[in-house]
């Protein structure tokens, strides 16, 4: 039976909703905040900023990460920049334009109120980051420098060379560690959340495993925040770090949190191509390179000449040809599909013919190598270190790769899931990007959720929890959750099969990339569902996990994460099969325009799909949150 979903969007005009919310939200007085415990899982930009901000307010925070330091969170990998509406370039930017660009970039499949709030809060972030010491690029005069990113025609992206995520993370890390030293944050590194604990229908704590000792531990709180990132690593080959996973949000989903639009995974157009079957990760090259680099392939199939030997007339600058208004800065979903189209047509370059050229010859000729090095020097150095090629002398080779999860836990306007007291922020939720994320909006969402939204919306919830006693970790709900976790770990160890979790993951990733990747079809998705079910059954019988439960055991950690992927992957395919339209990163081959572009069906599919766990991965329940567009009219995307 489907649920009635309430997004709890405030009344009033779009531009006034967040102000009205803050003006009327419930508050917790300073002397009461120290009585309330909050668990924050994840120490990336979203988790660290939320934990630091809430601790600064006086709440008692327990912060968890599976890395050995919060600084190793995957936010460091976001290179190109962070968007903010400052209009420093005086090129026509505004909050509404940023809102519209984001909504359009997501193919009109996001909630208007959340998307507008993202744009509205963006300007404050830059001022805060500068105050924290983030070394943004500057003009000679001292003003902050901007560059443009995909899907927009203004310059609103602030950057710190090619390491913006790392610099922003250091800012939030400093704030977090200050609160740790003040005694307001307990930091639990090398701890992985393995289950959520609900008591009387509310989130009250987590079960975590100490990855150094193997001990299973219980932690209680008045509220839980999940800031655990996205699940693009489900494709195996992706731009994400090896440790990135979906386990925290998936196990919360199995405890009652709805999962929204799980099939909407962005494929980034500027990854380094796979060079052999031995690889387990691909390297992301920043989208910022598309500002000055031109993307092309040879016009002839199976071209054997060096790129410098191919004359201009025999090159196809296909993004400039197909999308003249935006050219090489077309949105990521469009740029990735266009690259796949050229590669599938036999025009790919490189040893495996699986890439396109990203060429800086014209930019260097126009601006000089010194300026290009100033803008992108560390990226060029990274490229040469990995490939041995000097990109100042010959073009880079790039290829599409799985990257960002637009889908995630369903949340309302407060960023609270369908479980009271459980919040999801950053890439762990689905709220801001629709069916495709514009570049440089990921760092923005993580920071805005953590610094500016969660501190207000958690208070609105916690105001009714002041008289509630501290959570008793000996409650039967904790005992039951711990027993189930221990039972699963023992089962993994005792199976004694012949295939490792890594081998299963590689097989799963290939199924997903081929049939639920850049393009999908009903036939392919049905085949993928059947293959995933068979693979999951084999996983339950033939998994090999060496070592012991009570020990450092990375293979045991991986076994749990891949087990969750085996269930989530089927939901991704079911979600994609259910949506008989194309929108953003969801490209159904049966639903495309004459020009081969995505063809939406606003009459039947203008909703967010919020899936409910029904005890079986193969029979989820679909709930729908209708998307109402009161301030813009959805149009066919044209770039």
Automatic annotation (TrEMBL):
Keywords: Flavoprotein, Oxidoreductase. Gene3D superfamilies: FAD/NAD(P)-binding domain, Fumarate reductase/succinate dehydrogenase flavoprotein-like, C-terminal domain, Succinate dehydrogenase/fumarate reductase flavoprotein, catalytic domain. InterPro entries: FAD-dep_OxRdtase_2_FAD-bd, FAD/NAD-bd_sf, Fum_R/Succ_DH_flav-like_C_sf, Fum_Rdtase/Succ_DH_flav-like_C, SdhA/FrdA/AprA, Succ_DH/Fum_Rdt_flav_su, Succ_DH/fumarate_Rdtase_cat_sf. Residues 37-443 form the FAD-dependent oxidoreductase 2 FAD-binding domain. Residues 505-639 form the Fumarate reductase/succinate dehydrogenase flavoprotein-like C-terminal domain. This is Fumarate reductase/succinate dehydrogenase flavoprotein subunit. Its cofactor is FAD. It comes from the Bacteria.
């Amino acid at each position: 039976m489907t649920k009635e979903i309430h997004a709890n969007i405030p009344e009033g005009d779009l531009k006034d909703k967040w102000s009205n919310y803050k003006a009327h939200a419930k508050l917790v007085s300073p002397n009461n905040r120290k009585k309330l415990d909050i668990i924050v899982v994840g120490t990336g930009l979203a988790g660290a900023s939320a934990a630091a901000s809430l601790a600064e307010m006086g709440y008692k925070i327990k912060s968890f990460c599976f890395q050995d330091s919060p600084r190793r969170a995957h936010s460091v990998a976001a290179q190109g920049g962070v968007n903010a509406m400052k209009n420093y370039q005086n090129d026509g930017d505004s909050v509404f334009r940023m809102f519209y660009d984001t909504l359009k970039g997501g193919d009109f499949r996001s909630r208007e109120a959340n998307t507008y709030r993202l744009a509205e809060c963006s300007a404050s972030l830059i001022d805060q980051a500068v105050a924290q010491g983030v070394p943004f690029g500057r003009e000679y005069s001292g003003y902050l420098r901007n560059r443009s990113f995909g899907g927009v025609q203004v310059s609103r992206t602030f950057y710190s060379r090619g390491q913006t995520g790392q610099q922003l993370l250091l800012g939030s890390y400093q704030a977090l560690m200050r609160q740790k030293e003040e005694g307001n944050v307990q930091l639990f590194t090398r701890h992985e959340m393995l289950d959520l604990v609900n008591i009387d229908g509310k989130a009250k704590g987590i079960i975590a495993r100490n990855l150094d000792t193997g001990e299973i531990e219980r932690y209680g709180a008045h509220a839980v925040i999940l800031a655990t990132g996205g699940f693009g690593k489900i494709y195996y080959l992706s731009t994400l770090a090896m440790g990135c996973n979906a386990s925290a949000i998936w196990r919360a989903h199995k405890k009652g949190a709805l999962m929204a639009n799980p099939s909407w995974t962005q494929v980034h157009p500027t990854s380094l191509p796979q060079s052999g079957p031995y690889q387990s990760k691909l390297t992301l090259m920043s989208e910022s390179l598309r500002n000055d680099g031109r993307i092309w392939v040879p016009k002839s199939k199976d071209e054997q000449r060096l790129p410098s030997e191919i004359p201009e007339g025999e090159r196809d600058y296909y993004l400039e040809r197909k999308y003249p208004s935006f050219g090489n800065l077309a949105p990521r979903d469009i740029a990735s599909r266009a690259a796949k189209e050229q590669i599938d047509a036999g025009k790919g370059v490189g040893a495996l013919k699986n890439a396109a050229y990203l060429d800086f010859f014209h930019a260097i000729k126009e601006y000089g190598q010194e300026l290009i090095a100033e803008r992108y020097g560390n990226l060029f150095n990274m490229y040469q270190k990995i490939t041995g090629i000097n990109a100042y002398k010959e073009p880079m080779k790039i290829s599409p790769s799985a990257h960002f999860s637009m889908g995630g836990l369903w949340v309302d306007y407060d960023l609270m899931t369908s479980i009271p007291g459980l919040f999801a922020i950053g890439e762990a939720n689905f709220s801001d990007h629709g069916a495709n994320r514009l570049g440089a909006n990921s760092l923005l969402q993580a920071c805005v959720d953590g610094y500016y939204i969660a501190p207000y919306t958690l208070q609105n919830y916690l105001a009714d929890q002041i008289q509630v006693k501290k959570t008793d970790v000996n409650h039967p709900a904790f005992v039951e959750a711990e027993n189930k976790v221990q039972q699963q770990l023992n089962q993994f160890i005792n199976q004694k099969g012949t295939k490792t979790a890594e081998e299963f993951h590689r097989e799963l990733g290939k199924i997903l990339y081929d049939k639920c990747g850049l393009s999908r079809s009903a036939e392919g998705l049905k085949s993928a569902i059947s293959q995933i079910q068979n693979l999951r059954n084999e996983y339950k019988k033939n998994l090999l996990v060496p070592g012991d439960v009570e020990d450092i055991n990375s293979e045991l950690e991986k076994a749990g994460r891949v087990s969750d992927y085996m269930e989530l992957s089927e939901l991704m395919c079911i979600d994609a099969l259910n949506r008989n339209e194309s929108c953003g990163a969801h490209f159904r081959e049966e639903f495309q325009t004459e020009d081969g572009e995505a063809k939406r069906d606003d009459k039947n599919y203008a909703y967010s799909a919020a899936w409910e766990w029904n005890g079986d991965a193969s029979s989820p329940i679909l709930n729908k949150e209708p998307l109402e567009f009161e301030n813009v009219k959805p149009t066919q995307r044209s770039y």
